[in-house]
Amino acid sequence: MKATLRSRCVRTFAAGALAAGLLAGGGAGTFAWAAASPKPTPSASAASGSITVKASVTSVKSGDKVTFTGRTKGMPIGSKLVLQHKKGGKWTTLQAGGTVKQGSSYTFDAKLNDKGKQELRVKYGEVTSPTVTVTVK
Fold this sequence. Notes:
6-stranded mixed beta sheet; 4-stranded antiparallel beta sheet; 29% helix; alpha+beta
């Protein structure tokens, strides 16, 4: 009876040691794989979306309102969109923008004051729309 008890204890201990070794080895392999795989960045996942834009008019007087409308793809409802214009080769954020509504659409008004041809786009994170041109007289 002592031999049977001892052999059961030895088998149990051996099975536990084997299981611990497999878990430790498998865990190390999983850890090494996780460390080697690149992690997605928030901007990378946001860059997979898209924005369209349309201006209500192509020519306005300085200070007049222009309504911008469009649709988004891959952006949650309530996402804040901003309007930008190109000035001196750099994109500058204007004091206009809106939020993504149910159905992935948006609409907002902006007053344009800088005279000349304005290149405008809508932006969310790293995602930007194509540009639209509005001439301000």
